[in-house]
User: Fold this.
Amino acid sequence: MQIVLINPPNCGRSIPEEEFGITSLKMIFRGEPLALEVLAGNLPGHAVRIVDLKADPEGLDALLAEGPDPDLIGFTAVTCEANTVIKLAEKIKGAYARPPVIVVGGHHASSDPGYFHRPFIDYVVVGLGKLSFRLLVDALAEGGVPADIPGVLRVLPGGPLAPIQRKYAFEDLVDDQAPRYDLVQAHRDKYVMSGVGGKVGFVATAFGCTHCCSFCSIPAMTGGRYLSHSVEAIIRDIGLLTDIPLIRFVDANTFGDPEVAERLAEAILRLGVRKKIVADVRADTVVANPALMRLWHAAGLAAVVIGFEEIDDARLARMNKRSSLDKNLAALHILAEIGIRVIGDFIISPDYDHADFERLARFIDSSPIALPIPSILTPIPGTPLYRQLAGELTITDLDYYTFSNAVLPTKLAKKDFYTLYSDLMKHLHQHLTKS
Assistant:
């Protein structure tokens, strides 16, 4: 089959820009489309192409003008890209005399599959899809109507998508098939990680999360399980990125299984892999495993991303974060002592007032966080937070669900809220240049 996998363009909208002329808050997503590279890696025997519209905004026009006509087009999408994917699906369906099968997967499809029950979409893949997508492709290639494939929902007119019960296992990782990094080689120079080290390559060490933070859509990808790739597969994937000096492990928690993490670090050291590494880690994992952090620093771990989220225990509890300010501070102390830089994620609640913004700025100024990244609390459909706050939403257009727009009522006047948020971002940029 002729298969095209499409990464949507940067398409989120910005209330601060549209209403108040504040242009510094518009969210731009960078980085290679690893989810599509992973899917492509499990499609041997098929002709596969990746069109990354973030790196090449004119890529769709080129696709429509070139041959051969695709048999299947697959999209991935986070929430703020969902509407754009639907529009692109409609455009593509009307562009060919023999319309291709259109499949949508990714985070939003996994959290809210019913959103893609649209006339121009044929199938929705829910959750970790490397194996399910291959089974769907094989069934279509054989000329049949796919049925009973775990995680695959057929879109039929006149009725809702049938709910599915899905269990995830190690087999869903298809650990023996490497990502097709070669399919985006033309854009490699555009995949960078600002503030950390330039050109970057993405590697998956694990999928899913056993924690249940109320705002997070990641547990839905694996039914709340944490599935680790084998050490051998991770080393293989790092080795494929031969000319890339910086590796970004794109997992919710690279060290979610400390035993696997220890074996991986030891393998990197034993094999003499010389890369800078950035990985996500929870603060409580750092506190519980300082020796593991030291081992990883020796293996090349240059920076970690930690979701501190808040500096107030009551707010952390409401997010079901299962952490505390004291634990966050202890993690910062351990990492600073080791020499690992910290990229800190924070969540700004729409009920912040002037004092809350000032308190957060003071906290970051007094901390060893190298790169603070504040975003605005956003209830993503399908998450516990969304179920809790859906009735309070003032904006339901998913184009604005970029984590830089307030889709819930703000305590302050909107202009004041966004002005303070913009001022905080400028202040943090100054913090970055001094660190």
Observations:
- The chain has a mean pLDDT of 92.
- Residues 414-434 form the longest helix (21 residues).
- The longest strand covers residues 301-309.
